Amino acid sequence: MTVFYLLRTGQQSMRIGFTVGRVLGGAVDRNRMRRRLREAVRRQWPENKFGVDVVINPKKSLLAADFADLMQQVAAAFAAIEKFAGQQKNA
Questions:
Q1: How big, in percent rounded to 5, are the helix, strand and coil portions of the chain?
Q2: Average pLDDT over the chain, rounded to whole?
Q3: Which of 1, 32, 62, 77 shows its CA 20 to 30 Å from the CA of 22?
Q4: Given a cut of 90, is residue 86 above it in pLDDT?
Q5: Burial grade of 89 (CB within 10 A; 0-12, 13-18, 19 or more)
Q6: In this structure, are residues 77 and 32 in contact, taking their beta carbons and an 8 Å threshold?
């Protein structure tokens, strides 16, 4: 999956969106991808508050991926975003 993020100044809440286009499959497959992503994000939600807009763009392989692997990828993405946000705060 690809994760895009943008730091928002003066905000202390993170917003997350998902882009799951038709090219990834039919409605059933796309909705399943969204549900899996939402649950992984819910379980890995960071404790630190920082104002960031995040967009997650999954790949078709998300349907066959193990949920534990998906959670690791989401956690790694949040860690990278948190590191970036922390550097921007200190600068």
A1: 55, 20, 25
A2: 90
A3: 77
A4: no
A5: exposed
A6: no
How far CA 6 is from CA of 38, 43, 50, 59, 71, in Å, comes to 19, 22, 11, 21, 21
Residue 10 C-beta-side C-alpha neighbours within 13 Å: 0
The DSSP letter of residue 51 is -
DSSP state of 64: T
* pTM as predicted: 0.85
Q: Which three-class secondary structure state does DSSP give residue 52?
A: strand
Alpha carbon distance 56, 21 (integer Å): 12
Q: Which two tokens stand for residue 4?
A: 């895009």
